[in-house]
Amino acid sequence: MEETVGIDLYLQLLKRVLTNTVFADEPDIDQENPQAFVHEFVDHYIKGPAISMLPLARFDNLRDCIEDVIERRVPGDLIETGAWRGGATIFMRAVLRAHHIRNRTIWVADSFEGLPDPDPEKFPIEARMHRSAVMCKRYNHFAVEFDELRHNFEAFDLLDDRVRFLKGWFKDTLPNAPIKKLALLRLDGDYYQSTMDALTSLYDKLSPGGYAIIDDYGEDSWACCRQAVDEFRLTRGIKEPMIRVDSRCYYWRRSE
Predict the structure, then answer these.
(1) How many CA atoms lie within 13 A of 205 on its CB side?
(2) Which residue among 18, 42, 117, 238 has the highest number of C-beta atoms inside a 10 angstrom radius?
(3) Angstrom distance (rounded) from CA 106 to CA 184
């Protein structure tokens, strides 16, 4: 009982530190004024000390999924494709360590050069966003240097041999990644091609009973992630229902 309380306190505090919400509220992703949200988002996450841009609800979902695959002994590692400053993968490693899990690896896949340049003919919405002042000047295409991400893991004493990095564009790193099985697949690549590359290369490695979390599934005003997921699920005949985490993030559990 005491250990359970200790784990809960540690992980609750960690998610607050990672999201810079110990003493501040997180931006409301559903507020009616999109310009106001962008301003709050930049100030809180981009300019602030946050190590993750995920809303707290997505951390709760991530923890629930990890603890479920641990309890049900679903085999495989955990991966996030699109890590930014590493907050979600740091949290993944923390959950495993808190539960004394030593036989699973956290895979951190990122270009460390920001988002890839979308095809303007196939994905004009993404191309416009990619070239916009907001994406170029405020978000910097969400680029974070590799050394910064490693430093963030070290700051929480969570960089060890159970953390592996896949550095480069997903089309180059994921097809031949030395991953045998996955229990959790978390996609945060924003764009159509990044999402499709990850699904095509990794979904077959997801164990029955494992989870596929799509961070940007509901973000269809500037990205085509939903299109990629829907096409992949249709082509592969995936019937498992999409479950809502919040207005942007959805997931499903692969059938056993």
Answers:
(1) 21
(2) 18
(3) 10
Dihedral sign from CA coordinates of 103, 198, 134, 60: negative
Q: Please indicate, yes or no, if residue 4 is contained in any of the structural domains.
A: no
Query: Which mean pLDDT values do the consecutive 10-residue runs of the chain (256 residues) have?
Result: 86 98 95 89 96 98 98 98 98 98 98 95 95 93 96 98 98 98 98 98 98 96 96 98 97 92
**Residue 5 buriedness (CB in 10 A; 0-12 / 13-18 / 19+):** exposed
Whether 188 is covered by a domain: the verdict is: yes
Q: Which of 185, 189, 52, 171 is nearest to 115 (CA)?
A: 189
CB neighbour burial string for 107-119, b if at least 16 within 10 angstroms, e if fewer? bbbbbbebbbebe
In sequence order, the 6+-apart residues with CB closer than 8 A to the CB of 177 are 107, 109, 166, 201, 202
Range of the domain at 166: 53-253
Place of tokens 């999402």: 195
214, β-bridge pairs: 187, 250
Q: Is residue 230 part of a domain?
A: yes
Per the CB < 8 A criterion, the answer to whether 96 and 110 are in contact is no
What is the reported pLDDT for 35?
86
- Residues 6+ positions from 201 with CB-CB distance below 8 Å: 170, 174, 175, 177
CATH number at residue 189: 3.40.50.150
Amino acid at 127: A
87/29 Cα distance (integer angstroms): 18
Give the pLDDT score at 32.
Answer: 85
Tokens 């592969």, residue? 236
Domain membership flag for residue 19: no
Number of domains into which the chain is organized: 1
